[in-house]
Design brief:
The protein is of the alpha+beta class and 287 residues long. The chain contains 9 helices and 11 strands. Helix 1 packs parallel to helix 2 (103-118) and helix 2 (103-118) runs antiparallel to helix 3 (125-135).
Amino acid sequence: MQLKPMRLLTPAKINTILRILSKREDGFHEIFTHMVPISFFDELTLQEHSMKHFSFRCNLRELEGPENLVWKALKLFEEASGRTVRLIIHLQKNIPTGGGLGGGSGNAAATLLALNRWYDEPLAEKELQELGDQLGSDVPFFLNPRPTLATGRGNILSSLPSYPLGEILLVIPSFSISTVKAYRMCKPKMCSPSASPNTLAELASEIENQFHESLFPSYPELNQICELLLECGALTAAVSGSGSTVFGLFDGSLERNFAMTQLQESTDYTLIPCKMLNSHNYFSLQN
């Protein structure tokens, strides 16, 4: 059992392609999406303490309760492993909630992986996947974040090797969007699956988000942000997931940084420069 504190970075993701195909009998939606981790992170820290139970803390006090996915992941781990967690777990939130970036799902996945390592891996990979599936559709993706095709309700995963990776500028508006509300507004539409792009130009031409059809009329600012990014040199721009974060795709960091400077001078949006990742190792900070 590890005694020194453990610190993990938990990434956000973008959906480069997102199609909502049909409503399922279980209440979820059948989707087709490409998900890619990006270099924008929350931070999860675990350390031992002498209490008989765990303590969960967050820099955003309103997120500290049992509805947080970190808390839920911890309780599921206790039940599945038979371990009693006696740790202080601190979550430093940087990724906005309701932004379509999967921050909460990444936090949950990191919690499962961190606890499993701390307690000498009582759960096998398949068991962790099953726990992740219970926590949310995106959590299994974040257990091994890499460019991925997700189908079903988002939990049937296939790796997309050699996926083209570009520089990203996130534009975060002042409002968030409820995932439940976004799906309620969206009209499912069956369509043919896309092949995996091989170049950044191909990726730029294929990026799409079906939520645009329902979100843009209700949140016209999202379309305006996409247009601003294109005017500033983005290859393409789209809402990530069910919103409200918009991302611009760029050839390189120079083009991305130039666009960020232009937007900083003309808007009050929160701007996050980052890049698409081929993979992410949660435990790289432990080495």
